[in-house]
Specification:
f41 fragment of flagellin, N-terminal domain; 2 domains
Length: 444
């Protein structure tokens, strides 16, 4: 091909190709500078774009998790604030009922204070609502939707949920107000010998001489029945509403562990009492039972003869027996002889003692709730901190994959702009080259 052709200008073509290539690079660089990303579309790098999209979706999910955790924290914080006020009121209530035993004290005035404290406790519980969720209210509260008695918080990208139960229902599923759940129903310092016994609720439980460690061990006899791998020894308390608290003995020293035998339902609360029949004495096992009963919100007083006075939540009866496949069979007094009363046994426990013990049991229950809510708050905070850290790590990862190095792109942009100018100048020169051929034909 001739270098002196007006039909084909090789110099112009070369300059045009260089200018076009430079322009494409310049456009790509300007896009990176304007977006701050080296991979902004799938055309930039299909593999990296796909990975980045997946990570960005996870980041969006973590933002939703973080919002859920923050929402849950506010609900728990609201309940904790209410429980703090309830605990303060219970302290005042304990002071009041303790004073009620003093001769010369105006009990009518004290009863007015008791009534005011009980009203305040219920009000604190009822008003501890955050966005419709209340962890202290009861099922009878008309101000709270039934689906908002407990709290489910999304805690992970997989949709896993952290559940925080309703605290009033945990204490007593049959309670109509929070003071019922605390076992303070009808607390009355007036004429306690006749009116307060049934309101407070309590039983006296006596043990006879045949009670021994073997009663609670697997394959031993309880009330004429032999325990098997499907049978537990148990102690049951029943309140005036018919709700059952089943304390089932789990022998940690047994060769084969016996599982809890009663299926928990709305009318039954199952509590495992861990014992070791190979190392513990009868007194130690009874002590374990007492501690478990106390841990579940009841007040227990052990008398000098070894019998127990159990008070709280309107307890109406108590009995020992065996549980197998959900069926409870009373021992009938062979190995353990319960002596029940309809209310506090005034013969063995004075009325003032009963009142103080009842309030102390309520204080224990409220303190347990406060501790549980505190633990839940710590758990939520820990998960939220982890979620924030994970989101930051994923964000940094996406940045490493897709973000442009603007310092390098700035230098590249300057270089390309210079190349663009040179290519334009070269094309201009090449376009003028055919005009020089006119000189060959001048003078013709």
């Amino acid at each position: 091909m001739s270098l002196f052709s007006v039909n084909t200008n090789l110099g112009a073509l070369a300059a045009l190709q260089a200018l076009d290539a430079t322009q494409q690079e310049l456009t790509a660089t300007q896009n990176e500078v304007s977006t701050g990303q080296s991979v902004a579309t799938a055309a930039d790098n299909p593999a990296i774009y796909s990975i980045a999209n997946t990570i960005n979706a996870n980041i969006a999910g973590l933002n939703a998790v973080s919002a859920s955790l923050n929402f849950g924290s506010q609900i728990v914080s609201t309940a904790s604030t209410a429980v703090a006020s309830i605990n303060s009121t219970l302290a005042d209530l304990q002071q009041t009922v303790t004073q009620s035993g003093q001769t010369g004290i105006n009990q009518t005035t004290l009863q007015a204070a008791v009534t005011a404290d009980l009203t305040a406790i219920n009000e604190y519980a009822s008003q501890s609502t955050f966005n419709g969720v209340n962890l202290l209210t009861t099922s009878s509260d008309p101000n709270v939707d039934a689906s908002h008695f407990s709290l489910n918080v999304v805690q992970g990208l997989d949709g896993s949920v952290l559940s925080i139960p309703n605290q009033a229902s945990n204490l007593d599923p049959t309670a109509s107000v929070f003071t019922d759940a605390l076992g303070l129903t009808g607390l009355n310092i007036l004429n306690t010998s006749t009116t307060n016994a049934a309101a407070i609720g309590g039983v006296q439980v006596s043990f006879n001489s045949s009670l021994s460690v073997g009663v609670f061990a697997p394959a031993s006899t309880v009330g004429g029945q032999t325990a098997t791998p499907t049978t537990d020894a148990a102690f049951q308390l029943t309140n005036s509403s018919g709700h059952i608290y089943s304390f089932e003995f789990t022998d940690d020293g047994a060769t084969t562990a016996i599982p809890l035998q009663t299926q928990q339902n709305a009318n039954t609360t199952i509590i495992a009492v861990h014992i070791n029949s190979t190392t513990e004495s009868t007194n130690q096992i009874v002590g374990a039972l007492i501690n478990s009963v106390k841990d579940n919100g009841f007040s227990v007083v052990q008398n000098t003869d070894g019998s127990l006075n159990v008070i709280g939540s309107g307890i109406a009866s108590a009995q020992f027996g065996t549980v197998s496949a959900g069926t409870f069979t009373s021992t009938g007094g062979t190995s353990a002889s319960p002596s029940t009363t309809s209310g506090v046994d005034i013969d063995t426990l004075s009325s003032n003692q009963a009142l103080v013990s009842t309030v102390q049991a309520a204080v224990t229950s409220a303190s347990t709730i406060a501790a549980g809510l505190g633990a839940a708050a710590l758990q939520l905070t820990g998960i939220e901190n982890f979620t924030t850290s994970l989101s930051s790590a994923l964000t940094a990862g996406v940045g490493a994959l897709t973000d442009a190095d603007l310092a390098a792109e700035s230098a590249k942009l300057t270089s390309l702009q210079t190349k663009q100018q040179l290519a334009t100048q070269s094309l201009s020169i090449a376009n003028k080259q055919p005009q020089t051929l006119l000189t060959l034909f001048q003078g013709l």
